[in-house]
């Protein structure tokens, strides 16, 4: 998945939290957040390597799995959005309305 | 690397020769590669010391059996290899050796051998494993791996009675909880 | 349905404890992800796009009402209130927490269910004809064989680390409703022409995915007692010689193709000589004992009639009549019908059911179908034993739960994999296209006029939705970041299994909807009386449809 990015492309580190699988992003404070907007954006290969190195302890400590680097873009208001559709869906959830569990009227007694 | 035989740590009494090493002495138990066994078959079989072979997992068991004139028990040890735990070819080799060719010597697993595959290995007739085992506590964990699942459906090389056979020998209404 | 005995139950319980320990060791760091991954996969647990996904085995697609209620409970307690029935007759949950997975398996074990071998490079859960035991054309109930295979393959010591996954399907009737020619091994029950004895035709090396292949017959007639020894011989040749250097060439179909079916058969025969008549022999008493554990349903005697001769009062209740015509099939017992429950209401996500819908189905199964439900490879459900005089009441109850779409086997009964909305392997989304198509064809009267037509949509070349054998097949592709769909025509998975042919270049989703609408119009214009879509394509080839392509361009 980790494709070669342009050397100066903005990017963030993502993973899944081990215990519940939730998609998380690496923050500047060295924590993990489910919100992409909390992610620490870096824009060079060296910074990416540094960021990944900082994350490896959390992999070893079983906090997260499946480290990946993804390319993002930042709009005028500072909001972060992934470039690929896959990562966009991963960030915000399925593109479809999820089934809503609603109760039905009880079955009528058999005739 | 430490060796577990039927789940207990033992000293390896075998010398594993490269293709050029001479055996330490005539009586020493040695293993050789399949290539060396093929090349020096007569001399190796004529030695008084026990002989073992290291079998690559791509080798055909039938070829080894042919080399031994059908008698696998001329060997005291066959070393099987798991280059990665996901590569399961040696399970087939183990069962062919035990069940098709009546091999009674030791079958040893080497390579990427993990606790959670030990159950499958034992069922296929592997009785010894070379594992990276730092603490003695882990030894008990390896032995317990064989008891996690006690009910089995298949006949295999470990002599466990498959469920179907248990059923056929249990009167209805007197089912045995495993 | 099959009732566990104490042995079956013990194994499943032991397996739950074992997995609980494995999860604890993973969470504490004793196991690395690399070491843990095959262990969780063998318990059906994937890490998908958004979370863990749990795939629960529904062996040969048969469920009791109580089991269905537990599936609903899992959806509500551990997931987001719904589940997805798959083309492998399983159910998947999309929002599972690793730390809760052992509790889920324990809840399932209480109703004789498990997730064993729903993933991983092992023998997967065996699929069978969803009408097993009730279809009039059946030779023998294939579920007895499927259960014997389930037991044999469960934690198989030799075949748990195969080169690749391995899928077996069985049909008990001459009309293949289990797609046996596109499985690694397909079994077709038939009778030996000379002795009249029932046995199996064994088909090997079929499959879809990147390299779609129609399986070849390796043995015309295998007597039933040799079932396991012969299959063990096939598996052994595959385990020893299947490719492990390239994941795309690791399925048995590639090995069979490389050796040629005759050389492959010779190797299997050689291996079989060592196994035949040994401990793997399945005695008739084992078949009988397993059959006896399928407490067969107590039908009401003295009923008459069949759905095919049922007089429908169109004027009084046209919707009910339409539903019966589309969704109810003949049962082998007089006075009963097989009710297909569509999970494909227009705009619905194919195969998804909410917890309340599952509970409703469970209640209706208990009330009207002798407590039994089936899951089909077309992502629908079946209530297999319904008295014909219960049909109106059942229909009303289904309708109140959005479960009475009269479209089974029709154009809007679209088969779609989860695609990029859930699946980490996907190239494109499948569900939105399925929704758009089912809305386009929402007119049920018109759908019945169009007749039988299977549309299958896969989000990538892994072909989970079997697009190669869809009458209209759709494959999602990613071309330089653009989500496009490649369309095939003329595929089928029945006795005359055929792979569809590509028509035109890949197109965006909205254009795919227009093209398919055009293909259907073309069919309506050129069909002969009584000719199904697939028959027309077989007669004319794709040429007239390609004209649609240009006309619509
Ligand atoms: S076909 Fe591809 S996208 Fe669809 S479920 Fe299978 S692997 Fe995922």
TrEMBL record, chain A:
Pfam families in alphabetical order: DUF2849
Name under which the protein is recorded: DUF2849 domain-containing protein
UniProtKB/TrEMBL annotation, chain B:
Pfam families linked: DUF934
Top-rank lineage group of the source organism: Bacteria
InterPro entries: UCP030820
Name this polypeptide is given: DUF934 domain-containing protein
Species the sequence originates in: Roseospira navarrensis
UniProtKB/TrEMBL annotation, chain C:
Name this protein carries in UniProt: Nitrite/sulfite reductase
PANTHER family: BLR3264 PROTEIN, FERREDOXIN--NITRITE REDUCTASE, CHLOROPLASTIC
Residue span(s) of domain Nitrite/Sulfite reductase ferredoxin-like: 52-109, 345-401
Gene3D superfamilies, per the entry: Sulfite Reductase Hemoprotein, domain 1, Sulfite Reductase Hemoprotein,Domain 2
Record domain Nitrite/sulphite reductase 4Fe-4S: where: 119-273, 413-549
One GO molecular-function entry: oxidoreductase activity
Organism: Roseospira navarrensis
SUPFAM superfamilies for the chain: Nitrite and sulphite reductase 4Fe-4S domain-like, Nitrite/Sulfite reductase N-terminal domain-like
Keywords: 4Fe-4S, Heme, Iron, Iron-sulfur, Metal-binding, Oxidoreductase
InterPro entries given in the database record: NIR_SIR_4Fe-4S, NiRdtase/SiRdtase_haem-b_fer, Nit/Sulf_reduc_fer-like_dom_sf, NO2/SO3_Rdtase_4Fe4S_dom, NO2/SO3_Rdtase_4Fe4S_sf
């Amino acid at each position: 998945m980790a494709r070669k990015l342009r050397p100066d492309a903005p990017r963030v580190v993502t993973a899944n939290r081990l215990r519940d699988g939730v998609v998380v992003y690496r923050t500047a404070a060295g924590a993990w957040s489910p919100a992409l907007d909390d992610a620490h954006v870096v824009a060079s290969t060296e910074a990416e390597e540094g960021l990944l190195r900082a994350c490896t302890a959390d992999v070893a400590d079983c906090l997260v799995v499946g480290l990946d680097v993804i390319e993002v873009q930042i709009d005028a208001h500072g909001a972060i959005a992934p470039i690929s559709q896959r990562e966009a869906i991963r960030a915000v959830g399925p593109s479809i309305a999820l089934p809503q569990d609603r109760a039905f009227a009880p079955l009528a007694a058999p005739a | 690397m430490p060796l577990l035989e039927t789940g207990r740590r033992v000293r390896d009494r075998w010398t594993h020769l490269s293709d050029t090493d001479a055996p330490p002495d005539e009586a020493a138990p040695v293993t050789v590669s399949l290539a060396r066994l093929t090349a020096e078959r007569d001399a190796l079989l004529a030695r008084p010391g026990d002989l073992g072979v290291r079998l690559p997992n791509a080798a055909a068991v039938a070829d080894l059996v042919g080399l031994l004139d059908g008698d696998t028990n001329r060997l005291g040890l066959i070393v099987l290899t798991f280059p990665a735990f996901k590569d399961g070819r040696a399970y087939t080799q183990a069962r062919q050796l035990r069940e098709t060719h009546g091999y009674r010597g030791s079958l040893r697993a080497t390579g990427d051998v993990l606790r959670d595959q030990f159950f499958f290995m034992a069922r296929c007739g592997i009785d010894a494993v070379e594992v990276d085992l730092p603490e003695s506590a882990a030894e008990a964990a390896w032995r317990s791996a064989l008891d996690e699942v006690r009910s089995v459906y298949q006949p295999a090389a470990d002599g466990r009675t498959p469920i179907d056979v248990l059923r056929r020998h249990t009167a209805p209404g007197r089912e045995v909880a495993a | 349905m099959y009732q566990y005995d104490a042995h079956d139950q013990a194994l499943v319980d032991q397996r739950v404890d074992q997995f609980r320990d494995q999860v604890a060791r993973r969470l504490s760091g004793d196991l690395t992800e690399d070491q843990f991954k095959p262990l969780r996969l063998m318990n059906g647990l994937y890490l998908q796009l958004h979370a863990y996904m749990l795939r629960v085995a529904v062996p040969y697609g048969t469920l009791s009402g109580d089991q269905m209620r537990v599936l609903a409970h899992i959806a509500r307690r551990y997931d987001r209130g719904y589940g997805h029935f798959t083309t492998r007759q399983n159910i998947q949950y999309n929002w599972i927490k690793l730390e809760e997975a052992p509790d889920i398996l324990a809840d399932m074990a209480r109703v004789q269910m498990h997730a064993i071998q729903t993933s991983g490079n092992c023998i997967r859960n065996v699929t069978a004809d969803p009408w097993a035991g009730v279809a009039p054309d059946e030779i023998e109930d294939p579920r007895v064989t499927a259960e014997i295979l389930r037991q044999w393959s469960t934690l198989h010591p030799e075949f748990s680390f195969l080169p690749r996954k391995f899928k077996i399907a069985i049909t008990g009737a001459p009309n293949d409703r289990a797609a046996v020619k596109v499985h690694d091994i397909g079994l077709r029950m038939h009778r030996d022409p000379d002795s009249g004895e029932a046995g199996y035709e064994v088909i090997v090396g079929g499959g879809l995915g990147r390299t779609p292949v129609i399986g070849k017959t390796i043995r015309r007639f295998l007597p039933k007692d040799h079932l396991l020894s012969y299959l063990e011989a096939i598996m052994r040749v595959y385990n020893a010689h299947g490719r492990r250097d390239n994941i795309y060439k690791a399925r048995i179909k590639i090995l069979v193709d490389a050796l040629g079916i005759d050389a492959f058969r010779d190797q299997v025969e050689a291996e079989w000589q060592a196994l035949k008549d040994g401990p793997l022999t399945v005695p008739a008493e084992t078949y009988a004992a397993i059959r006896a554990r399928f407490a067969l349903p107590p039908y009401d005697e003295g009923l008459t009639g069949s759905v095919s001769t049922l007089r429908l009062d169109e004027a009084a209740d046209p919707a009910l009549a339409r539903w019966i015509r589309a969704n109810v099939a003949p049962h082998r017992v007089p006075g009963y019908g097989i009710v297909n429950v569509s999970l494909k209401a227009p705009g619905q996500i194919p195969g998804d059911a909410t917890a309340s819908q599952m509970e409703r189905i469970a209640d209706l199964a208990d009330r009207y179908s002798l407590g039994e439900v089936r899951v089909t490879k077309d992502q629908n459900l079946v209530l297999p034993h319904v008295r014909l005089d219960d049909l109106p009441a059942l229909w009303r109850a289904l309708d109140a739960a959005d479960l009475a779409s009269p479209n089974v086997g029709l154009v809007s009964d679209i088969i779609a994999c989860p695609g990029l909305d859930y699946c980490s392997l996907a190239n494109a989304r499948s569900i939105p296209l399925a929704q758009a198509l089912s809305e386009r064809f929402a007119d049920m009267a018109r759908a019945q006029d169009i007749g039988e037509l299977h549309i299958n949509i896969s989000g990538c070349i892994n072909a989970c939705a079997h697009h190669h054998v869809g009458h209209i097949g759709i494959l999602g592709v990613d071309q330089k970041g653009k989500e496009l769909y490649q369309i095939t025509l003329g595929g089928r998975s029945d006795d005359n299994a055929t792979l569809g042919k590509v028509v035109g270049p890949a197109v965006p989703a909205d254009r795919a909807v227009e093209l398919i609408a055009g293909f259907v119009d073309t069919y309506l214009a050129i069909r002969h009386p009584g000719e199904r879509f697939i028959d027309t394509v077989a007669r004319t080839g794709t040429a007239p449809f390609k004209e649609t392509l240009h006309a619509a361009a």
